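Archive entry. Fields below.
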Amino acid sequence: MTDKRVYIAGLGIVSALGTGGTETLEALASGRSGLAPIRRFRPPGDPLPVGQIQEIDAGRTMPATHRLAQIAAAPILTAGGPPPDAVIVGTTTGGMAESESLLRAGVEDPEAYRWHGAATVAADLARRFGCTGPVLTVSTACSSGAAAAALGAALIRSGRAARVLAGGADSLCRLTYYGFLSLQLIDPNGARPLDRDRKGMSVAEGAAMMMLTADDGNPEAEILGAGLSCDAWHPTAPHPEGAGALSAMKSALNQAGLAAGDIDYVNLHGTGTIDNDLSEALALRALFDTKLPALSSIKGATGHSLAASGAVEAVVSVLAIGHGLLPANTGCRLADPALALFPLKTPKRAKVRTVLSNAFGFGGSNAAVVIVQPDRFSPPRTVERPPLRIAACACVTGAGATDATLRKLDAAGSCAGVLDEETLCRGLPPRLIRRLRRLPRLALSLAAEAAGDTRPQEVFFGTGWGALSETDRFLTRLFESNEQYPSPTDFVGSVHNAPAGQIAQFFGARGPSLTLTGENDAFEQALLAAELIGDGQHGPVLVVGADEAHPRLSPLFDPASAASAADGGGALLVDRAGSGPIVSLRFLSGDGGSAGAIDQLIDALGADGAGARYGAILAGIPAGKKTAASSQLDKVVSACRLAAPVFDYRQWIGQFATASAAAAAMACRWIGQGRIPTALCAGAENFEDGRGILLLGLGDSISAVEIFPG
Amino acid sequence: MEPLLKELRVKIVDILDLVDVRPDEIDPDARLVGGDLGIDSIDVLEMVMMVEKDYGVKIDNREVGVKVFATLRALGEHIRQNAPELQG
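PREDICTED_STRUCTURE:
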């Protein structure tokens, strides 16, 4: 395989500084700040400065996050060209700005929440662009946008995609405004990153999108390297010496094949909080010593657009290279001598070949991206990685953990349901979980069982709906107290990647940590991310999928779960060197509604000869999509001449988004035993001739995961 | 022990979900944060909300917070001196 370049061939941006590259450049060249007191809603206290975008206020038909993503993507869509092979959006809020108002008003019609899911932002863009490939949603809190770019670059370098639309979007909402306020991380005067008297950040909204391509057309810039890491330190506070930030920057430079001295400009994460700026400064000084390049944070101008910020700043980095403009560190009057960073006080015209752009988030999720002039440097060497092999697996269902679940299935008993908390938490230290609600408990329980005595170093987590208990508790208390006493604990726990952060902290996993959100294909997205990013060099890799059943929110957000409450998930401990069963994602499409996706799946599996490879097919058929899913299944079975018996596993383990993660763990066990219980899947008693199991995800998204004996 | 400290111990165990701590195990003069109780910075912020909501006392900067949450007794003293309802 040849070394691939990852070009940035088109871009779009919207922030408090304006819409589009030209407006953004003009604002950055003037050094002005876009921060102003919040107007979107009226808080009981003084309205705090935020980065707000006025144009999205009027006449909205979709939530603000979706509209921001559309605005950012518009120039790329207008430019035309073939549809992207994949869409990757970093977001944390999704439709929260609207959902929180609906919840407050007591609206109980699930239709009103159809745009709630974080994954619907990417799904909406995919539809507009006609993308029939993977549609991924990265939710690693404030590093999401940069992590989305990193994942997009990895997808192109792997050869699995030639064009990827990647970016980030988040909108202002009460959850984040009051959440950060409850953590005392807001500067009432507006963010002053790196300033001696800085008091915190300013919450903002925004979006930025990039078309990443493998072809040189007329590219604006090139992504030469990206690095991901996890602090494994604390749910919110950065590592005090910036160890995780340093590791992400080093890994980005390493992939880019550049030395620290090659970097012309660093676009800082620079939120303006006391701790972030300090730890980032320590990391930068460890990397650059005294030879610091030009550097600045633009968050005193744009505010902190959370999951969008990494993408917004990647686009600003591209603009800096294309237009020779180094943005100022707006808001900083007297640089904190303790940081010793000397940020740019005013915008500066200079030739920029190379930019290092940082983004760090809650859960200790760090990302750094190296963006350079196109075709100036050699692209990174392509790394051929052996497949992922399953060293151990675990699942949780209503029947209990792995053994209890498999015993019950052996006896042809249904495992669908909600496991009691006491059984779920057996074996987890009480202090570790005292502040955690159901989803992080599920995730930790799965991770602990799968990991056994090993210490995984990378975590890939998929969740359909995130931490619903924490979200509900946060909003309930916020509204009951008339927006006066939000809970910092619940806010921290409500972040989608909080469970992955807990897992990483539990094991001291300092490698990449990614959380993917995707309704029914969240686990498959996490598996794809593990295939692309997980290298297993420093220890095994955890791939986990989990969802909680929440009595109030699950039926509103996930209609498939409405009939009967069920939750759980699965975990695979994988490596690239052992002898365990091989797991691979053969196909993923976010466009199950189109006939094209099924045809592509048939192509991917191979119309001829596919039938004989599998001893059984585990089909994920979501309730409410039964007709469409059954017809999809029939088409694949007939076209690929799949002779193996089909097991409709959701009927046995429950209707929840990441039921496929539990199914993957079961499949792994069944392959080890060489049989599936007859009552579940008659005719699948014998795997002895090396046949594997095919996991099909059907409905709105289509996926195919293969597990073969090692 | 004064009633305010007894009341605070119960509230702290409750709001922080200190599952393995009984209220009477909180020594009023022992280190409250970062000590044996397992209370960390997020818990401090949760206590800040409780103190503001239940006693009307705002603690909104880190320097004050470090002093106030040093021990249960220090917290009680700060509330006693600043709570509108406990004045005079």
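CURATOR_NOTE: The mean pLDDT of chain A is 95.
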